Amino acid sequence: MTTSFVPLVLLGGLTAAGVYLLLERNLTRMLLGLLLISNAINLLILVVGGPSGNPPIRGRTSGDTSITADPLAQAMILTSIVITMGVASFILAMAYRSYRLTTEEEVGDDPEDAKVSELAARDTAAVEEERPKPDLGRDTDAPDELDAVPGFEGSQ
């Protein structure tokens, strides 16, 4: 099976634009990025699904083709459309609620998250200070007291 180069370039462009929009802090752009990535994945499933052919119903033919179309790709795309619609409605509800609370659509830094990360950094620094520092002047190649097995005199 050979695939045309044009749909693959289109898929790459849609995915790249979707990722770019998802990385923005504006909820509407995030939603558009999610929709672009979803459409790119749907097109990818359609391209990978194989060539078109007869309907997958026994006794039905379409034109002069002898190949039966794979219904799995179509079912997966329909399922993906429904899931994307649900996620998009959830993001729209979040955007509406955020706009009603803050009258702006930008997603800002969460002050509680900043406090948690500051506390974690402070705790990590405290643990680093309490950790004993290695003695660099000591010869680590020579056997220590802890290297010897108790009760073993060695080969004398």
UniProtKB/TrEMBL annotation:
Q: Which Pfam families does its entry note? A: Oxidored_q2
Q: How does it sit in the membrane?
A: Multi-pass membrane protein
Q: Which UniProt keywords apply?
A: Cell membrane, Membrane, Transmembrane, Transmembrane helix
UniProt lists compositionally biased (Basic and acidic residues) regions at 128-141
Record-level GO cellular component terms: plasma membrane
Protein's cellular compartments: Cell membrane
Q: Which residues cross the membrane?
A: 6-23, 30-52, 72-96
Q: Per its UniProt record, what InterPro entries does this chain match?
A: CPA3_antiporter_subunitC, NUOK/Mnh_C1-like
> Residue ranges of region Disordered?
103-156
The Swiss-Prot or TrEMBL record describes its family as follows:
Belongs to the CPA3 antiporters (TC 2.A.63) subunit C family.
What's the protein name? Cation:proton antiporter
Species, as recorded = Mycolicibacterium phlei DSM 43239 = CCUG 21000
